[in-house]
Amino acid sequence: MANLTLRLGAREVAVRTDEGGRVTIDDHGYTVTTISPGVYLVSDDEQRWRVAVADAGDTRWVSVNGQVALVEIDTGQSRAPRRKSAHAGAMTAPMPATVVKILVEPGQTVVEGATVLVLEAMKMELPIRAPRAGVVKSIGCSQGELVQPGVVLVELEHG
Amino acid sequence: MIRRLLIANRGEIALRIIRACRELGIETVAVHSDPDAHAPHVLAADRAVRLGPAPPRESYLNVAALLDAARATDADAVHPGYGFLSERAAFARACEEAGVIFVGPPATAIERMGAKVGARQLMDAAGVPVVPGEAPSDQSDWALAAAASRVGFPVLIKPSAGGGGIGMKVVRERDEVADAVSQARREAQAAFGDGTLYVERLVERPRHVEVQVFADTHGNAVHLFERECSVQRRHQKMIEESPSEALSPVLRARMGEAAVAAARAAGYRNAGTVEFLLEGSGDRARFYFLEMNTRLQVEHPVTELVVGVDLVHAQLRVASGEPLPWTQASLTQRGHAIECRIYAEDPAQGFLPQAGPLLLYREPRGPGIRVDSGVVEGGEISVHYDPMIAKLIVWGETREAARRRAVEALREYHILGVRTNIPFLLTLLDHPRFIEAAVDTGFLDREGDALRALMPVDVPAAALAAAAAHEVVRGAALPGRQSASAVDPFLSLAGWRG
Contacts of residue B498 in chain A, CB cutoff 8 Å? Predict the structure, then answer.
């Protein structure tokens, strides 16, 4: 038997797993068997679902009937330290992209919504805007650089 | 017959062409950029040549590198696929001059159909209906405004060069013309280096119906019926189907004849598509020439399934000098086919393109289901190229049978690691307007937000049960297990199943 906590958006769900592929969520029982690696048949007394699951760090991608969701998993035993989430003054890359233009410099005051830099990915320009007013504390990328998602591009501090 | 073909493309279309070559006994040469060195199309070909770094202009658009690759591998023909260099007359000409067969139309035909104003005049002269409009040789604001008044409002101001909706302006009233003209001219100049404009009557709520044509070097030209591609978002097609529910047999025959006339007027050879705007439906509908795509189309499998032909085989035969494998009388439509383009994009975030690893990738299978893809599980969707992952093409006896087959296939299409438009496609396929085949080209741009709001938000709790079970299978939640990779999922599951 093992207890897990899963997070789906703002929702937190306690899950118990038992022998025989039994999984209990909110007193509701499911039986899970493997169809192929990463793809499972989930059944309760009335219905069956075919669900695919894949790992990305502490996140599990799941898909069922064409719907996809990201589930955060907490096993109760901290395996890897959680990635430090960027604080409110940090602007991060939403996807792998090339830095086309940097429009600010350290020390510069910016207003909320000001475009601080422009990324380009898949033939599309993507302006990155200041989430609030502040002073540019640091710039974590250079023009022409290929940046990965989550990388802090520009950090703001309160002016 | 062509002996060795270089495929100047990547992804699903390169694989599609490689398969056709194998079936015909033609050797294949793949080309690739650095990040594509181990891409599926490279691994599938008989030989592979590196072109250059990731950016397309240094790799897949690099004409000199492609011709060098053809020479170095002693290839006697080049297939451009779609996109990249497929509609660059200069590339077709460079191949011709290098003594390499270009699997496509002659450079002159690409040029003729590439200049919009010239193509319009050519079609008009050949008796192909064009949208009423004027292309004044006097390009002054005054002359364009006068032309707009003669055509009658509302009008569309369009650049002669280019496409993709860039520089196109809808003008509903006379006093809006001056602003629209200067803006369109500026945008066209910036995008295409040519600010020439023309004026057309605005066709309101048109359908996009295109006709597949094919011509050989022996004077034969046929059409292979229509595809309807009205489901598009900002000129990007999302779903294509054949036949079109909007065509009566009489109209279908007239459009087919017009498309063949268009191909003949252009001096066309090989596979091409004549795009029409359709106003209204049934026998009273009117159709107008929009443009000609001088290449194999993304959506060509729709025609292959309904007509029962292999367009790439035919391309290779015709490029080798053989006559067309069909006569017009031998071609018929049977059943209904629907293609859904699967894009790496997040419909919940304004269709923002996505890049990342394909952590899990399982295609649907079954009767009447075809998936043309150029990716594998464990591969990567790159930021450098088009975000199209695959095309799902289904065939059914009726439109409704095909629609349901598409829905079921999408429901069992598992793609994890990047967001895709599958949830949006499912919402669209179940929408009453799609079920009734009552969609015009502006539908998605008008109703897209409403459709997105219809996408289900929550996954069933069963998905969480699977995620939890997955933890047990990979051993992460079992005491004493440190590394997931040390656990054989089948072994642990066998014990776990009880």
Answer: 19-21
